[in-house]
Amino acid sequence: FFLNIAQPMLFLREPSALPGVSASGMGLRLSQKFVFLLFLSGLVTLCFGALFFLPDSVRLKRIFLSKTETQPVTVGSGSENDAREPLKRPKDPESRTESASAKATSFARGAPSEPFSYGKFKGCLLKPPLGRDSGRPADPETNERREKVKEMMKFSWDNYKSYAWGKNELRPLTRNGHIGNMFGGLRGASIIDSLDTLYIMGLMEEYNDAKEWVQTSLDLNSNGEASLFEVNIRYVGGLLAAYYLTGEEMYKSKVMELGEKLLPAFNTPTGIPRGVINLGSGTSWSWGWASAGSSILAEFGTLHLEFVHLSELSRNPIYTEKVMNIRKLLNKIEKPHGLYPNFLSPVSGNWVQHHVSIGGLGDSFYEYLIKSYLMSDKTDEDAKKMYYGALEAIEANLVQKSPGGLTYMAEWRGGILDHKMGHLACFSGGMIGIGADDGAPEKRQHFLDLAAEITHTCHESYTPTKLGPEAFRFDGGGEATATRLSDRYYILRPEVIESYMYMWRLTHDPKYREWGWEAVEALEQHCRVESGFSGIRDVYSMTASHDNMQQSFFLSETLKYLYLLFSDDDLLPLEDWVFNTEAHPLPIIQHLFLSFFPP
Ligand code: DMJ
């Protein structure tokens, strides 16, 4: 492009240098050419200039400018040396407030210019990731319970290895593997989802088998249709966590390779990604079932944590830019009663339907707001504002009290309440709990109480098998009960146990460990089969009908949260780690977010 302009300019400067051309003829042709070339170069300059003045010129600039030129601009007057300083966190958690006020100055230094250093990262953690003694509790009964959970993990893993190795999930009744169509031809979802669980449990032989499989057999050159959300939370999240915990560079290169393959999903008029992407061709489209080609809030809103870490590791802001663009749009768009509906058009950037839910289709969007704030070491103020704003709207419009006194979150359909809560929505007890401390001072206790009430309601739904249904209702005389046959199944989901784990860490109320143990016993009684664990079709029947599926999130989340529940708090301490929505731990790094987006 540049050469085509430069060549005629040379020609005009030195016409006589052209061999075999008479002076007069040359003069005539020269003047014609001169006018033509002048016109042409004017046109080209105009077009080229116009590209840079388009509203979202960042992407275009990226095409024309070198990578270094696209790095964020350094603000303030920090020296070059300052810019290269490693990102530091205070060693003393008490001094966190001080660190927050120091942040503005640190940020003035701009983006880190050195490649990511694992050694420096480890030095920034406040505590050792596995604690003093791998989180082993002093109390013998708790330790026994923890050992039981570890045994369940080993049992699930061994059976997966025997009958489904390399496939996505184990079918424990038929003793074979399941591939499914969520991961676009990627394999080994249970392996990727298990890496960090095996590692923190000290199941090292199993962990090494998993690591070797990733090294030798995880093929990222697949050509199928993948859910952007599922690949992100399980594969990207799983590989990131494995890297941060172990420092194995192989995980880092794999996750970088995979991250790049997800980028074309964002090539839409608004930058809101579509739900499905072909990992080979990069073509993307919306789910057939999503109304009017829309994208789903819980899907495009559950990328932030992983994508910010992809930027951190690669030192390439593109991933953070993609998720910041989503946030920008969500911030700007008008929200009915302050609520975020579940469906948004990636073409117009408008809501498509006014259905709001803290359960399926909405859930982890809210989770990622508060976790983005926490993961940035409390520097990402926008995420904080959006989270507490959303929570206020949820409290004003969705939070209800049942006649029997149970607090629950209803769903909202264009202003009409559906008095139903999904199992998925039960993560919100934990979410509100971890966000309580950073709310307005007069609201902190209230948030903690609300978190405890929601967790209590979800525990109430776990009856009589002591496992809970997919959805439960509070109308028609029901109190946290599935009134429809089709809502009675339990597929080894983690959300209720997830909330027990957070509430335990926050309050140390022994009831959460008791409730967790109830769940362990119920899983053993109703879901354990000869060759693994299986979901069940009816939580109200004491005779189990199994669904023949050991979900990968059982290994990644359910068993991990149970293990953490019975461990000391110094195993993956919350001062240093946030869990992505698939329970993969990602580190809190001071300035992680702001190093690419200074305030
Ligand atoms: C997991 O994949 C994640 O927790 C996700 O956010 C919701 N669904 C499953 C577990 O139920």
TrEMBL record:
Catalytic activity: N(4)-(alpha-D-Man-(1->2)-alpha-D-Man-(1->2)-alpha-D-Man-(1->3)-[alpha-D-Man-(1->2)-alpha-D-Man-(1->3)-[alpha-D-Man-(1->2)-alpha-D-Man-(1->6)]-alpha-D-Man-(1->6)]-beta-D-Man-(1->4)-beta-D-GlcNAc-(1->4)-beta-D-GlcNAc)-L-asparaginyl-[protein] (N-glucan mannose isomer 9A1,2,3B1,2,3) + 4 H2O = N(4)-(alpha-D-Man-(1->3)-[alpha-D-Man-(1->3)-[alpha-D-Man-(1->6)]-alpha-D-Man-(1->6)]-beta-D-Man-(1->4)-beta-D-GlcNAc-(1->4)-beta-D-GlcNAc)-L-asparaginyl-[protein] (N-glucan mannose isomer 5A1,2) + 4 beta-D-mannose; N(4)-(alpha-D-Man-(1->2)-alpha-D-Man-(1->2)-alpha-D-Man-(1->3)-[alpha-D-Man-(1->3)-[alpha-D-Man-(1->2)-alpha-D-Man-(1->6)]-alpha-D-Man-(1->6)]-beta-D-Man-(1->4)-beta-D-GlcNAc-(1->4)-beta-D-GlcNAc)-L-asparaginyl-[protein] (N-glucan mannose isomer 8A1,2,3B1,3) + 3 H2O = N(4)-(alpha-D-Man-(1->3)-[alpha-D-Man-(1->3)-[alpha-D-Man-(1->6)]-alpha-D-Man-(1->6)]-beta-D-Man-(1->4)-beta-D-GlcNAc-(1->4)-beta-D-GlcNAc)-L-asparaginyl-[protein] (N-glucan mannose isomer 5A1,2) + 3 beta-D-mannose
Cofactor: Ca(2+)
Keyword Calcium attached: yes
Disulfide feature: 426-458
Alphabetized UniProt keyword annotations: Calcium, Disulfide bond, Glycosidase, Hydrolase, Membrane, Metal-binding, Signal-anchor, Transmembrane, Transmembrane helix
The EC number(s) this enzyme carries: 3.2.1.-
Cell compartments where the protein resides: Endomembrane system
Compositionally skewed regions (Basic and acidic residues) per UniProt: 81-97
GO CC, any one term: extracellular exosome
Highest taxon, organism lineage: Eukaryota
EC class of the enzyme, as a word: hydrolase
Family named by the database record: Belongs to the glycosyl hydrolase 47 family.
Biological function: Involved in the maturation of Asn-linked oligosaccharides. Progressively trim alpha-1,2-linked mannose residues from Man(9)GlcNAc(2) to produce Man(5)GlcNAc(2).
PANTHER family for the chain: MANNOSYL-OLIGOSACCHARIDE 1,2-ALPHA-MANNOSIDASE IC, MANNOSYL-OLIGOSACCHARIDE ALPHA-1,2-MANNOSIDASE-RELATED
Protein name in UniProt: alpha-1,2-Mannosidase
Species of origin: Cyclopterus lumpus (Lumpsucker)
The organism's taxonomic lineage, starting at the top: Eukaryota, Metazoa, Chordata, Craniata, Vertebrata
